[in-house]
Specification:
This protein has 7 helices and 4 strands. The protein is an alpha+beta fold. It has one domain (2-172). The longest helix has 31 residues, at 57-87.
């Protein structure tokens, strides 16, 4: 897999994608869905005041009424754009192993980054994945049923790194 920028600098091409990688990109919306996972909801939409008391009720109510819906809309917009770009994936090789390319406009990089980040955070909370600083045992990941979510999360993190290198405006680096 590789990411290249078009000569005119307006597009990125994510090439050399196998079927597994393409399916993981197609699964970003499901991975990013915090439904039925209160920990993921709290991670994506944290309260504005960490140790709130009864005096902070109005602030928290305003936050939930005005800010959280906007955050949800932004996340949905990011997921919509990633899905749209991935839906246009083109097969570039059939045999012996299928390979695909996904094109995205450079101005979509921030949206992709946001969607992938949301998916990573939700997977982390939903599957109680080990942090990057925790010693990792594949045996433990398999035993706990975390291996698929772990590799999906790591794949999203790698794509995010590549997007930063290849497509973010200089002010973002």
């Amino acid at each position: 897999m590789h990411i290249t920028k078009s000569e005119d600098g307006t597009q990125l091409m994510i090439g050399g994608l196998g079927e597994t990688e393409l399916e993981m990109l197609r699964g970003v919306r499901d991975a990013a869905d915090p439904t039925a996972c209160p920990e993921a909801e709290r991670r994506l939409f944290p309260a504005p005041i960490a140790d709130a008391d009864e005096h902070d009720f109005d602030t928290i109510a305003d936050w939930k009424e005005f800010v959280v819906p906007d955050l949800r809309t932004r996340f949905d917009d990011a997921l919509d754009q990633l899905e749209s770009d991935v839906a246009d994936a083109r097969q570039v090789r059939k045999l012996p192993m299928k390979r695909f390319v996904v094109k995205l406009r450079v101005e979509h990089v921030e949206l992709w980054y946001s969607a992938l980040n949301q998916a990573r955070l939700v997977l982390q909370e939903k599957y109680k994945l080990p942090s990057e600083n925790t010693s990792l045992s594949l045996e433990d990941l398999f035993a706990k049923g975390q291996w698929r979510a772990y590799f999906q999360s790591r794949f999203y993190a790698e794509v995010q790194c590549w997007l930063l290198e290849a497509g973010m405006p200089d002010g973002w680096r």
